[in-house]
Every structure is written in structure tokens, then in C-alpha cells.
Design a protein that fits this description.
By secondary structure, this protein is of the alpha+beta class. The chain has 2 domains: 42-123 and 268-335 and 349-417, Periplasmic binding protein-like II (D-Maltodextrin-Binding Protein, domain 2, 3-Layer(aba) Sandwich); 126-267 and 444-449, D-Maltodextrin-Binding Protein, domain 2 (3-Layer(aba) Sandwich). Helices cover 34% and strands 20% of the residues. The chain has helices at residues 54-61, 64-67, 80-88, 101-107, 132-138, 159-167, 182-193, 226-231, 246-251, 260-263, 276-281, 283-305, 308-315, 325-332, 362-374, 384-394, 397-409, 445-449; strands spanning 15-22, 25-32, 42-47, 71-76, 94-98, 115-120, 123-124, 126-131, 144-145, 148-149, 173-176, 200-202, 207-212, 217-220, 237-241, 254-259, 270-275, 335-337, 343-345, 350-351. The chain has a 5-stranded mixed β-sheet, with helices on both faces. Strands 15-8-16 form a 3-stranded antiparallel β-sheet. A hairpin with a 5-residue loop joins strand 18 (335-337) and strand 19 (343-345). Helix 1 (54-61) packs across helix 12, helix 12 packs across helix 17 (397-409) and helix 15 crosses helix 16 (384-394). It is globular and about 65 Å long. It starts with 14 loop residues before the first strand and ends in a 13-residue tail after the last helix. The model is unreliable at 1-33 (pLDDT under 50).
């Protein structure tokens, strides 16, 4: 990672300054317009080695952080728990987080802490991969056309394989990255849509394994370890972000069967999270960080992804993702390889800015909370109002709007790049593009939960 060198004499571009910079001292009379100067300039952000940490890497490499008067160090973390704990204790100023992490922490599942997010880092970007052996067993049930599997590949075709394992008294094991991760909920959603029960959590009874009444046993594995864990036979498949699905293809050890875009089109994936205490202490700093990240996200998607090859070169560096260029490029440049040689165009596999990807929608937060309730992480019924209140406590589009409006005022972005803030409610229109055909309306969480055949709803308890 390149050295972070802080200027001794920073004349911020947001300042109207009268005075002189002498040596290391600034003698000045300053008038601020819009967002004030950062209260804290030297920052350390954490991330996990996944391609969707890209907005952080790009904001750093392209100088967007420094444009905001911020001097940032980016530091890879061992796993999601360590990352969250370090944000909570202040060792990190903020971090690339699973979209469910701020919510899980705030409701007290696992770790209790007030974490907020004012920036969604991306849409999509995950896939479900199975081992070669499991693929060979389920492939015979998969519809084919012109010698290739018809997508999306549903869990219906995995069910006979799981049933066979159950009849033989063998556990069927799969991996995901964290209990409140998108990957956990996507894998569970896919399995349940195919009639496979992924199991329940019962925190009130001290059981947080998530395997009660399960047809498939899901366990946590750090993302970079997914391929090797599957190759060793410890798990038979997994849900993870890139490049660790494409890595299985390159190594010849597994087959990605479905992308998360095929499970839920344009689903929210990662967020940038900070502690509420930090955000309250450094409000201007927070806004400047969001401004830099918005610019980075736009750079990643602009002109039909023309910058993606350069982004892949950056991400391939050891201090970021550290995977081979070709492995990262396989998904980041608009394609995705399923079975070896079956490469298909998926231009929206990674979305960083278009479709208002960076806006922290309340409805996205509510969806995660419904899945926490569905699988028992929220053990008792909650009112619709509770879901709304919790979403608004954690997801902060108000902070995002300040950052966006400042970028517009400075001429760095256009109003058309963002939602219409005067009319925006924070709730997407009802979403229909789920693999099971169920419509999601974020304003009616309990009615949504009632639609599922598998999962807790109403007054259900484990």
C-alpha cells in the first residue's frame, strides 16, 4: 500500500481563504460555504478482500479522499467479526460491511452496538457455487438448451441430492460468510424457494447455530477460504462474493450455479458502516467520506463500465483483493463463467452506481430485518412500525443527501445522478424480480413474511 503523506499546509478547496501558509502553520481567515472542514483528517478504514470493496480502493487511488482533505489508510481485516469489533472499539474509523451488519449489531444479534450507514457500496456481486461432485449429481435434473443449462438454476434441482443425503443419514453442509450476511440470506432464500429448509436460529434458547430443523447445515467460512474449504470436502458448496466463485472455476474444483442477481435482481450487498458515536463526533468528516465514495462509485460505472479493466488491475494488487487479474476480470468486466467454458454476459453482475446503487434505502434495511425474523434471529413478532423505526435508525439517507447536494453544488455531479431528494421516501417501489416470484413491498414487512411457505411469520417461535 502506498504511503499516506499528509500535507503540512492544506488550503481546502471548499474554503475562501485570506492569509498565508508559512512553514507548517496556516495563518488565515476562513469562510466556509456548505459542508465544513473535516473534524478528523487522518482515518483508517477496514475491508475484506472482495471485489466489492472497490469504492474504497478507487477513492484512495484516484485521490478522491485527498480532494476532501482526508488522509486515509486502508487495511484488510481477517474476517467480518474482527472488522465489526474494530469499528466498535474505535480502532477503525469505518469499514466495508455486510449490509446486514449494522442492523444485526443495532438489534443486538451477536454483538450489540449502534452502527449506521449512509452509503450503499454496491448491488449484486455474489453467487452460489457447488463442488464438482454435487454438480454432477444435480445436473441431471437441470433443464438444458443447446447443450447448456437453462438459467436461473433453482434449488429444486438440488433437492433430490439433499434428500438422498438425508435418507443415507449424511449431513449436507454448505458455507456462507457470516450469520447476518447477504450471503446467508441469499443462500437461505434460494434453498427455501426450492423446498429445502436451511434451518433456524433460536437466540432466546442460546442456540445461534442456525441449524435447527435444517435440511442443509450452513456454517461460517471466511470468503478467501471458501474454495479450499470446499476442495477439502468440509463443505459441499457455498455462497460468497467475488472473486471466490470464479476462483473455483479456475481451479477446476466447483461450478457456480446461480448469481444473486438471479435470486433477487439488483439486490443491495455491502455498505460503508461507522459507529453512531463516531458519526456524531465527526459529522463533517463523515460527509466528506461519503462524497469521496460517491465519486468512486460513479467512476467505476461510468461510460458503460469503461474503467473496469483499470479497476481490476488495482484490485488485483496484494493489498486489496490479491487475486489473479483474469479471475477478478471474469465478473468485474461484465461476464460470468458458470461451468468451465460456459461464460455468459452479465453486465450487471457488479453495480456500483447506476440504479441509485449508492443510496441507502430504508426498504433495503427492512428486507434484511424480515429475513432475520424469517430465520429466527429476531425470535418474536415485531410490528411494522418496529421495522420502519429500526431501518430509519440505521440507514441514513439524510446524511447521503447532504453529501450528494454538496457534490452537485460543486459541479462534480449532476442532480440527475441521484434520486429526486424532494420526493424520495426511502422506499423502493414493490420489487417483483425474485426467483420465487414473490413481490416485496418494504412498507408491509409482516404481510411479506406471510407469503413464504418456509420460515417464521406472525407469532411463530422456535
Amino acid at each position: 500500500m502506498k504511503n499516506v503523506i499528509k500535507s503540512k499546509c492544506w488550503l481546502g478547496w471548499r474554503k475562501i481563504t485570506i492569509g498565508l501558509c508559512i512553514g507548517a502553520s496556516l495563518v488565515t481567515s476562513t469562510v466556509y460555504a456548505g459542508v465544513g472542514a473535516p473534524e478528523k483528517e487522518e482515518l483508517k478504514f477496514g475491508f475484506i478482500k472482495l471485489t466489492d470493496m472497490a469504492p474504497l480502493a478507487i477513492a484512495y487511488e484516484k485521490g478522491y479522499f485527498e480532494d476532501e482533505g482526508l488522509y486515509v489508510t486502508l487495511e484488510a481485516q481477517a474476517n467480518w467479526k474482527v472488522l465489526l469489533d474494530r469499528v466498535i472499539d474505535g480502532e477503525l474509523d469505518g469499514a466495508h460491511m455486510l449490509a446486514g451488519q449494522p442492523l444485526g449489531a443495532t438489534i443486538g444479534f451477536g454483538t450489540q452496538a449502534n452502527i449506521i450507514t449512509a452509503f450503499s457500496m454496491d448491488l449484486n456481486g455474489n453467487a452460489i457455487t457447488v463442488s464438482n461432485d454435487i454438480w454432477s449429481q444435480m445436473k441431471k435434473y437441470v433443464p438444458m438448451k443447446d447443450g447448456k443449462p437453462v438459467h436461473p438454476i433453482k434449488a429444486d434441482y438440488l433437492k433430490p441430492v439433499v434428500d438422498k443425503y438425508k435418507s443415507e443419514g449424511k449431513p449436507f453442509k454448505m458455507g456462507m460468510v457470516f450469520p447476518v450476511s447477504t450471503h446467508n440470506y441469499e443462500l437461505r432464500y434460494w434453498l427455501a424457494a426450492g423446498g429445502i429448509n436451511p434451518g433456524y436460529y433460536a437466540p432466546g434458547k442460546g442456540d445461534t447455530s442456525g441449524t435447527l430443523k435444517a435440511d442443509v447445515l450452513l456454517s461460517v467460512t471466511p470468503p478467501p477460504q471458501m474454495p479450499s474449504t470446499m476442495e477439502a470436502g468440509t463443505i459441499f458448496g457455498y455462497c460468497v462474493g467475488e472473486p471466490w466463485n470464479q476462483q473455483a472455476v479456475f481451479k477446476g474444483i466447483g461450478v457456480p450455479v446461480i448469481t444473486d442477481d438471479e435470486i433477487w435482481k439488483n439486490n443491495p450487498e455491502k455498505v460503508f458502516g461507522v459507529s453512531k458515536k463516531w458519526a456524531d463526533k465527526y459529522p463533517n468528516t463523515h460527509i466528506h467520506v461519503i462524497m469521496a465514495l460517491i465519486r468512486a462509485a460513479k467512476w467505476l460505472d461510468e461510460d458503460n463500465n469503461k474503467n473496469r479493466p483499470e479497476a481490476v488491475k488495482i484490485l488485483a494488487r496484494s493489498q486489496y483483493v490479491g487475486a489473479d487479474y483474469k479471475v477478478i476480470a471474469n465478473s468485474m468486466t461484465g461476464t460470468f463463467e458458470y461451468e468451465k467454458g460456459d461464460k455468459r454476459a452479465i453486465p450487471d453482475f457488479n453495480v456500483f452506481f447506476r440504479y441509485n446503487a449508492t443510496y441507502p434505502y430504508y426498504s433495503d434495511a427492512v428486507w434484511y430485518l424480515t429475513q432475520m425474523r424469517r430465520w429466527g434471529q429476531i425470535p418474536v413478532k415485531k410490528s411494522d412500525k418496529w421495522y420502519m423505526d429500526m431501518a430509519k435508525k440505521v440507514y441514513r439517507p439524510d446524511i447521503y443527501a447532504i453529501a450528494a447536494k454538496e457534490l452537485i453544488a460543486e459541479g462534480k455531479m449532476k442532480a440527475s445522478d441521484f434520486p429526486d431528494f424532494a420526493k424520495e421516501t426511502g422506499f423502493r417501489k414493490p420489487q417483483t424480480q425474485f426467483i420465487d416470484g414473490i413481490t416485496y413491498d418494504g412498507t408491509k414487512p409482516n404481510a411479506y413474511l406471510k407469503k413464504f411457505k418456509i420460515g417464521l411469520k406472525g407469532d411463530d417461535k422456535i
